[in-house]
Amino acid sequence: MSDSTITLPWLVVRRDDNGNRYTVSRCATRVEAEKIAGRLEGHGPTQLYLIERIEQNGQNGSP
User: Fold this and answer.
1) What is the arrangement of strands in the sheet containing 48-54, beginning at the earlier edge strand?
2) CA-wise closest residue to 50 among 1, 2, 41, 9
3) What is the pTM of this model?
């Protein structure tokens, strides 16, 4: 686990129509992640953007 995992625990993840997942941003706060996801949802084709938190053990957890 790197220092950035601890200081930037919130992920913005894009899920495409085939179920593939791509991390598009790492953020310090959930509010920041939600703002980024909101801006991305307003562009291009409809995509699903998820907000996830990385736990101290490095695993993705529930928001």
Assistant:
1) 21-27, 10-15, 48-54, 60-61
2) 41
3) 0.75
Per the DSSP assignment, residues forming a β-bridge with 13 are 23, 50
Q: Could you read off the pLDDT of 9-41 as tens digits, one per residue? A: 999 999 988 889 999 999 999 999 999 999 998
Whether residue 61 is predicted with pLDDT greater than 90 in this model: the reply is no
Please provide residue 29's backbone torsions phi and psi, each rounded to the nearest 5 degrees: -130, 155
Distances (CA, A) of 32 to 9, 10, 17, 28, 42: 11, 9, 25, 7, 16
Determine the residue type at 35: K
Measure the CA–CA gap between 31 and 8, rounded to whole angstroms.
12
Neighbours of 19 (CB within 10 A): 6
